[in-house]
Amino acid sequence: MAENHRPRGLLILHCPVIKRVSVLIVTGATGLLGNTLVRRALGRGLQATALLRDKSATRPLDGLAVRIIRADLAGDALEPLVAGARCVIHAGARVAIGRRDLEAFRVDNVVPTARLAAACRAAGVRLVFVSTVDTLAWGSRAAPGDETRSSGREPATAYSISKREAEDAVLAEVALGLDAVIVHPGFLLGPWDWKPSSGRLILEVARAPFALAPPGGNDFCHAADVADGVLAAAERAVSGSRYVLSGEALSYAEAFRLIRRAAGRTPRIATAPAWLVAAAGRAGDLIGAVSGREPALNSASAAIVALPHHLSSALAARDLGYRPRPAEIAMRDAWTWFTGHGYA
Fold first, then answer.
1. 112 preceded by cis ω (within 30°)?
2. In this protein, which residues make up the domain named NAD-dependent epimerase/dehydratase (predicted)?
3. 150-157: Cβ within 8 A, 24+ apart
């Protein structure tokens, strides 16, 4: 395992609980949240290490005073990497919404998390595991879900199953003495979305002559606000606790209007009926069966976007001082970044 000028997504934080974090290790540091975490941490004068896979591009870390280590979380010895750190933020994951390739999701999401949790326990290092709101029970705007309710009627995906199993692996290590916290981010938007990931929604909605929104809703949050919440959890959350880090509850139609306004487009929006979305999802399944690759629009993703997908961040507001900004700010900041970096 050679040390290089950049790792894939692991920040090693020196973060004693109830004290200011001074050194971080972050996994997933080239993704939207991980990259934002690195930048927010460096902006606070913290030291950061990014743990990257061998093939991960380093462009998202160019110009940053971050130490980079390349390693295989599923195969390399991890205790030497985390020894001496105070906190590891595990933000790296395989993300896609569908039902196929569950074993591949387990290899990428469960195995590395379990190994990293065991290494942190052995080294006496705090772990902040970045999970997803998809492992929790969703609610409506009037009655949002929270950290206390497990996923129930929500459509199961390979991603959500693997993240739930990864949470179980972390909690099993907590029972053995690991100091760990689990966070559940909402729908992230903002600058530094290099791939792009969730920001593809902004690009697609802004580029279209008109936008056809699905009938459900989601909680849209600024990646910088979520990153600050993660850092606060690293510094002062009680071991074994979990926090929703969500944002403004909007229907997709409302969100699409805000996106088009942020991009200077006319608000040509219509809401698709649930039956049409479901039919499109089934068509996606057929395309995937023929091509061998599951498309982004499939029956699982179609079922999800037809539902309300709302959770409360009240616990994080109380314990961590979490204060998400309006979704339109995240959309505007993301669009400005995309246009400035040649994506739009």
1. no
2. 25-243
3. 154/304, 154/307, 155/300, 155/303, 155/304, 156/99, 156/300, 157/97, 157/98, 157/99, 157/300, 157/301, 157/304
Q: What is the DSSP code (8-state) at residue 142?
A: S
According to DSSP, the β-strands at 217-222 and 248-251 are antiparallel
Phi and psi angles of residue 262, each rounded to the nearest 5 degrees, phi first: -60, -30
- CB contact set of 258 (below 8 Å; sequence gap of 6+): 250, 327, 328, 331
Q: What confidence tens digit (pLDDT) does each residue in 282-300 have?
A: 999 999 999 999 999 999 9
pLDDT in tens, 259-284: 999 999 998 899 999 999 999 999 99
Instruction: State the residue for tokens 């697609």.
Output: 204
Contacts (Cβ under 8 Å, ≥6 apart) of 292: none
Phi, then psi, of 280 in degrees rounded to 5: -65, -35
Smallest CA-to-CA distance from 30 within 48, 2, 55, 57 is with 57
